[in-house]
Specification:
The chain is mostly helical and 313 residues long. The protein has 2 domains: 11-73, no CATH class; 95-307, MetI-like (MetI-like fold). The chain has helices spanning 2-29, 34-39, 45-55, 61-73, 87-122, 127-141, 144-158, 174-208, 211-218, 223-234, 236-245, 247-260, 266-276, 279-307.
């Protein structure tokens, strides 16, 4: 296993390099000029050109990319073009709300999806199965911002159970923290849960048709024991796989969710940076998200051996 882990870690280096090339190229080839944004609408072309020269944007793109990669290799993501604050400091200031939202969304999704998928598989062909599948289709089809606005309208504007927007750190109290994170995590978790529920149902249906499941029932084991100790364990590999893949959905969903609920996290920072063409901030955040995604995929692959001893590396 250790040889496999080392190979996977080494394989992340070229993957990170490809991501860096695409991110840098797409940002610099996209319409918009940060120098023009800084200079303002009434600036003269000469003023814009001076700002571009000061920021190093007048250099060839391959030279800019080489300088940026050299900084990244030394752990320096650069400074924001507008605030002149190091990107690492901006990320550190905004990372707590995003991590809390992502973790809470994963918990909500798994707690909702796995029991629903198991119930749908056990009651296949009944109205319960159809109801779960309707939820799965709607949950995965409706945009997260629509779900967010519905939750705000129902539980904040009318019921006054939760705040409309904002984020409260857990350091300021567990109860205020939970009240501020509940609606955003449910809005994002519903979409994630819909995907996991469908995979859980499909995977469990395949396992329930195996001979050893019928043998377990013939030995007198209860349905709950058969499902939890035998069927669900053997069906867990596809479920864990889709949980890891779903992290990509969270990365995209966090940006929208934080904008809807006005949460000052990395998603909002990405939106603000894109509007301002703040290249170093956008590049730094995307590289961080890519690194997290690669690590999670590695952990998911490693977990296979613990879930199914037949899998070897």
């Amino acid at each position: 296993m250790w040889a496999y882990i080392v190979r996977r870690l080494l394989a992340t280096i070229p993957v990170a390099g490809v991501v860096a090339v695409f991110v840098f190229s797409l940002l610099h080839l996209a319409p918009g000029d940060p120098a023009a944004v800084i200079a303002g609408s009434y600036a003269m072309p000469k003023d814009v050109e001076q700002i571009r020269e000061k920021l190093g944007l007048d250099e060839p793109i391959y030279i800019q990319f080489g300088k940026w990669m050299w900084q990244v290799a030394h752990g320096d993501l650069g400074d924001s073009i507008f605030s002149e604050v190091p990107v690492t400091r901006l990320i550190a200031q905004r990372v707590e709300p995003t991590l809390c939202l992502a973790a809470a969304s994963i918990i909500v999704a798994i707690v909702m999806a796995v029991p629903m998928g198991v119930l749908a598989a056990c009651k296949a062909g009944t109205w319960i199965d159809y109801l779960v599948m309707v939820f799965a289709v709607l949950g995965f089809s409706v945009p997260v911002f629509v779900i967010g606005y519905v939750l705000i309208y129902g539980f904040s504007v009318h019921a006054h159970f939760f705040p409309v927007q904002g984020f409260v750190s857990i350091r300021e109290g567990v109860k205020p923290f939970l009240r501020s994170i509940t609606l955003p995590s449910v809005a994002l978790g519903v979409i994630y849960a819909a995907l996991i529920a469908r995979i859980t149902r499909a995977s469990l249906l395949d396992v329930l048709a195996e001979d050893y499941i019928r043998t377990a029932h013939a030995k007198g084991l209860s349905s709950g024991v058969v499902i939890t100790r035998h069927a669900l364990k053997n069906a867990s590999v596809p479920i864990v796989t889709i949980v890891g893949v779903g992290i990509a959905l969270l990365i995209g969903g966090v940006v929208v969710t934080e904008s809807v609920f006005n949460i000052p996290g990395l998603g909002r920072l990405v939106v603000d940076s894109v509007l301002a063409r703040d290249y170093p901030v956008i590049q730094g955040i995307i590289m961080m998200f890519s690194g997290i995604y690669l690590v999670i995929n590695l952990l998911v692959d490693i977990s296979y051996t613990f879930l199914d001893p037949r899998i070897q590396y």
